[in-house]
Amino acid sequence: MALRVAIAVAIVLLAAPAAFAQNATRMAMARVRLTTDPKVPVGCTTLGTIDDTSVKDLRRKVIRLGGDTALLSFPPDDLERMNAVVFRCPASAAAPAATRPSAGPSAPNGAAATHMPPPPSGSPPPPPPPGSAPATK
Question: What is the pTM of this model?
Fold first, then answer.
């Protein structure tokens, strides 16, 4: 019984670094920003070009080059292939800005009210046609 426990512990200890490395790679791949907008990598450092037919493999190649952003293009003669220019962007440019709703007045039940934009200027829309709205009690 003690031998089985020792073997199980050894397997867990040997597998843990591999699992951690896979998890770290997956997290890095998830942070790769893929875009077709040439304005996104402005101010970033160009690292090189890559191509692949798999988004997953393309992300791996971006990580291998040390990048965090890839500007994609699609060649018209090979519809499965993706070309990419790889960039390393400053931390503020690489991550999209997190938007939080502003802390507005509180709702009657004590919860924060959601921020609603003002209505558009101009005339209001026409009323719905008769019979289209549910009956009120």
Answer: 0.53
